[in-house]
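Re-run with default settings, no changes from the original entry. Doing this only to confirm the output is reproducible before filing.
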Amino acid sequence: MQTYKAPLRDMRFVLQELHADFDTKGLPGLEDFTPDIADAILEEAAKFCTERLLPLNASGDEEGCRLENGVVRTPKGFPEAYRAFREGGWTAMGSDPAYGGQGLPAGINKLVEEMICSTNLSFGLYPGLSHGAYQAIQGHASEELKAAYLPKLVDGTWSGTMCLTEPHCGTDLGLLRTKAVPQGDGSYAITGSKIFISAGDHDLTENIIHLVLAKLPDAPKGVKGISLFLVPKFLPRADGTPGERNGVTCSALEHKMGIKASATCQMSFDDAKGWLVGEPHKGMRAMFTMMNSERLSVGIQGLGAGEAAYQGAVAYAKERLQGRSLVGAKRPDLAADPIIVHPDVRRMLMTIRAYNEGCRALGAWVARSLDVMERHPDPAERRRAEDFSALMTPIVKALFTDLGFESASIGMQVYGGHGFIRDHGMEQYVRDARISMIYEGTNGIQALDLVGRKLPAHAGRFLRSFFHPMLNALDEAIEDDDLAPLAQPLSKAFGALQLATAHIAQKGLKDPEEAGAAATEYLRLFGLVALGYMWLRSAKVAHTALRAGTDERDFYEAKLTTARFYMERILPQVAGLLAGVKAGKGAMMALDEAMF
């Protein structure tokens, strides 16, 4: 049986202590947002996720979605849960009050997303994609389209998708064939096929709004000829209610390894009526607004899977009796000791814990930069936040999902054979987590984005948004007797990151394949250093609290122990990653294609 209790204490630590130097009350629109409000939201989200979503996770996986008479049906209980989710205002959290939203900070939104993903990842995809569609429409559509569609997306009565992939093209969208023909009334007739469309059809909302990439008749070749169109499942009437069925159908459902309660559809557009979003041939700019939002959310999916796996593994390790402690029986009153006494089980649990808490801290830092980017009155501050968000987005997406899948796999290992069967639910976490490394741009694509676009951008300006604060923190920590034992290995790891960055800059300029060959190791190296930075900062907060005589000694002592574990047992991976980066493309690219 799957178990979950929202890690509210750690979430409060991240929001109110670790990142306390960032005051959301100083940003326009967030003046009234207080820690008490944040606590209330997190408490209610935890209650909803635990009571309404978690009970549907295993049953939804067993039942899956089905296509009946051209309509996709979600598993039993999903429509009712979504109705409660919508009526509770959860679809409106991060949206503009001008369209009925609550305008809450990104940091609180991401923590709620984490709880949703821990308890029911399949369910979370439906409102998650809708919010991405909301952002693309808000940022690029005409005022007329915004007025017609955004309020319905915000209140959750309508949902949204993004339709990119086609059977013959995935990442290389320049090859897409979907066509958009101008009509006399200002609309366009959209014709083509899309695959792997999450939430492409379902029975949760009155209408589904598809954002579709297509090409106009006069479109230039490649990605510079792609436009974005808003295509509703039902054409709205004058009063805003769903009317005539548009030329959009779900032709098939994909049969998948995981996230089976999320409808992944093959979609057909047959002269479907749509409207241009943004400028002609500039569709990728608008779509990337949605994709970048989704990439951060997919990273949170990895964290959610890791947290669920950790809690399940800890519960099992405390109950499962097997063998005796290597230093003598810990529970002589029992036939055997619980497996949590064994060093290798502790290694596995501590690894997942260190990953989860580090990712939660880093994710909150990136999320808060989004608020600065959108709300800060100083253009220079907005630009710095935008630089940081751009740099860290591929790292959050790829690192968090890599670690989330790794954590789910480790969690299964804690269970042993019982993890491989369905009874305990751990194998579902492994299956569900695996897709997060693939969609919204595979993790290899994220690594290429990091080394090919983000590092050289503006002569390395993006890097300064991370390197400078980390250097300052290391300089201070080295002089602190409590923090120096953590800062010293982190300083060496940061030096390795600097060497790797210089190596890629030098080699990659001469030969793009050199940068490509090093990209995955470099992203992982960067991500581990970033997590180390979060653990150094967490340790500083913990030491301060302990010196002040806190009543929560166990919580802060656990932070320090986990920080030490991270620096001693996980951060040393950086040395091997640096060696891989410096090895170059030689052996990787040497074999002729015929030799594979």
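Residues 442-586 form one domain. The two ends are 44 Å apart (CA to CA).
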